[in-house]
Amino acid sequence: MWLTKDSRNLEDIFTPNIRDIKNIYHDKNIFTVEWTFSCTENNKNFSFDGVSLITFTEDKIAEIKEFESKKEHYRPYK
Questions:
Q1: What is the pTM of this model?
Q2: Which of 4, 51, 65, 66 has most Cβ atoms within 10 angstroms of its Cβ?
Q3: What is the pLDDT of residues 14-63, one digit of tens each?
């Protein structure tokens, strides 16, 4: 599937809300997407926040960088 770029069966693998997108920021050819990822594996629930930096060149994705942040955050000055 991934090697042949056949995305017809994605609905069989992923739920529609696998990534809950919080914000999308755009500046010229770079998009910053803030999201939360959730899944269940071996009857265990996982969740984490993340950010994707997506760079476009000539209307095509040239680069994707993704970063993970643990779900629980410590904010000492809040």
A1: 0.66
A2: 51
A3: 666 677 888 999 999 999 999 988 877 888 888 888 999 999 999 899 99
With CA atoms as reference, report the closest residue to 37 among 25, 29, 28, 46.
Answer: 46
Q: What are phi and psi of 10, to 5 degrees?
A: -60, -35
Looking at residue 71, the DSSP 8-state letter turns out to be S
Question: Which DSSP string corresponds to 1-32?
Answer: -TTTT--TTHHHHS-TTSEEEEEEEEETTEEE
Model confidence band, residue 10 (pLDDT cutoffs 50, 70, 90): low
Q: Both ends of the chain: CA-CA distance in Å?
A: 46
Residue 6 phi, psi (nearest 5): -95, 105
